[in-house]
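Ticket #4471: structure export looks truncated?
Reporter: QA, pipeline team
Priority: medium

Steps to reproduce: submit the single chain below to the structure queue and open the exported record.
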Amino acid sequence: MDFVRTPDERFANIPDWPYAPAYTDVKANDGTDTVMRVAHYEAGPADAKETVIMMHGEPTWSFLYRKMMKTFLDAGHRVIAPDLIGFGRSDKPTLKTDYTYERHVDWMNQWLNINNFSGLTMMCQDWGGLIGLRLVTANVDRFDRVVVSNTGLPMYGKEPSAAFRAWQKFSQEVPVFDVGKLCQGGALSTLSDAEIAAYDAPFPDETFKSAARIFPTLYPDGETDPSNIANGKAWEILLGFSKPFLCAFSDGDPISAGGDRAFIGKVPGTAGQPHTIIKGGGHFVQEDKGEELAGVINDFMAATPK
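Actual output as written to the record:
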């Protein structure tokens, strides 16, 4: 598996981002001996009572969580934010065919277990949920709580929204995949030029964008799709998951609208939790209402002690 590595200088002037990357080697598991780097950012006391892991989606990177990370750190918590393979400072396989949903799950599962992270509150959005919930169900003992926002865990027989299908089609047909502008399009607030540039930073040119370009097509379709089968098994675990589970979706995301109904009342841990709709938030609610969402999660953690 061939991959590219974004030069460090591309990340020299990222606003509100004081975090240095740590790197973990994971096996590509493509039949070769290829090893790739997963980047993550970690801050806060090593002995903090609470540790929040934040999983980004498409086509963002951990920079998406900068407002939430500051709020968590101000509350004394520890934060961990990984960049998915193909995004941020993680390595980027160059062929679109190198990416599958199951490989993404495998790569991040390796990362989680190599680092031996535990005592975690999972916060996940977009594809960060499709991958993050698979991490939770494969490593239940490592997680104390789950927060889902503008995401889901698809299964055969549940068709995604029309807005997602439109995005899926657009992503494959647009001549230039302009990541910064796409991130602006997923937020209701106006990003600064520097913030848009930060989202563009991982991608010096189109050869670095194979993951960003192909990701929407990785949504599992068909009863025999390996990820639908794997997700069905994950749902069996979620249907018995009694640890605290919070839904905090935004009110301005056409892609995930109503997605909280898939969890509330079905996952046992959702019972009695203060599920909320974040008003004034778009698909990238972390941009529009990051501090507010982090505050909701701080209250959730305080109300559900370990």
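Status: closed, not a bug. The export was complete when the record was re-opened. Leaving a note from the reviewer for reference: The two ends are 42 Å apart (CA to CA).
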